Amino acid sequence: MKRYDTVVFIGRFQPLHNGHIEVMKEGMVHATKNFIVLVGSINGPRTFKNPFTFEQRKGVIESVLKNKLADFSRELNVQVVGVPDSKYNNDAWIENVQRIISGVNGKDGSVAIVGYDKDESSAYLNWFPQWGEVKVEYNTDAAVVDATTVRNILFEGLNPGFFRGVLPNESFKFLEEFKGTDEYARIRDEYEVVKAYKKSWEAAPYAPTFVCADAVVVCAGHVLMIKRGAHPGKGQWALPGGFLNQNETVLDCAVRELIEETGIDIPEKVLRGSIDLEKGGVVFDAPNRSLRGRTLTHAFRFNVQLDPKGRLPRTKAGDDASDTKWIAFGDLDENNTYEDHPAIISKMR
């Protein structure tokens, strides 16, 4: 059996289940000094796909390490570290992971990544060719566990007894407590809305691809945002935008949605003249960027000016927006910003 100075286990742990524990055990057996649990998707709003915060997941993992895996981890330096997503930039994510591991392991120690190569969600296992690999073959019932099924049962409100056989007690207890929170109620409402939305087109012969346009309106180091008035993303800040109508171009869609949702006090002709030609119609097409299904958006940057009194242009919420706000680039909060809009803003700056 080959052993390594450091073994790394990467996952979202939404939530931690018995399959994860089996992987941890195998990884620790192959580690001589360090075992690092990298918790992904720590940035972004809470949704039914990513309902639990990094601190919540870290707490459950550390409890399991202490209560169930002490015999495996006793001689190791075990750390639970968060790593943010870098949507549309895998290289940046890989570099971040490499930097975290180098900070623990040093530059000369041997490293391996442990995991179960099951589907496209495990693609990251092949992104570190310089490291060794510890493959896990499940020989227990833990093999049939997947976190998506656990989350679906959680937000369907079905019998939680199912969790007893697939989750450690630490995760089960956490989920029982979570079900009593306002955040659970909000996410479950969103889950029901999206489920009904998908049901409306489930009879189509092919899964549809939706097309949207978003307006990235920039002025004096600020970006114009709207607060979403309905699910999905109710209460989160988002770029003005929406679905493409059958009789319009994506540019016309971006301009229409901008005016309808923000009522920005700039004539349409001036708005169209303010479009940045180098950043007009940029496509953002991450396959899982939207909970609603396969959704592509075309983003247009509008460079607008302060009004004659040196103020940001006046706006007034309308259509699907409950509020509008000019937000300084330095004040953007990824944890309360809709879908991949922080990545869009970053790319369009």
Overview of the molecule:
The chain has helices at residues 18-29, 54-67, 70-73, 90-105, 147-156, 169-178, 182-199, 250-262, 268-273, 341-348, and strands at 4-11, 31-39, 77-82, 111-115, 132-135, 210-219, 222-228, 237-238, 241-243, 275-284, 295-303, 321-328. By secondary structure, it is α/β, with parallel strands linked by helices. It has two domains: 4-178, HUPs (Rossmann fold, 3-Layer(aba) Sandwich); 210-348, Nucleoside Triphosphate Pyrophosphohydrolase. Strands 6, 7, 8, 9, 10, 11 and 12 form a seven-stranded mixed beta sheet that branches. The protein has a five-stranded parallel beta sheet with strand order 3-2-1-4-5, with helices on both faces. Helix 1 (18-29) links the parallel strand 1 (4-11) and strand 2. The longest helix has 18 residues, at 182-199.
Secondary-structure blueprint:
Elements: E1 4-11, H1 18-29, E2 31-39, H2 54-67, H3 70-73, E3 77-82, H4 90-105, E4 111-115, E5 132-135, H5 147-156, H6 169-178, H7 182-199, E6 210-219, E7 222-228, E8 237-238, E9 241-243, H8 250-262, H9 268-273, E10 275-284, E11 295-303, E12 321-328, H10 341-348
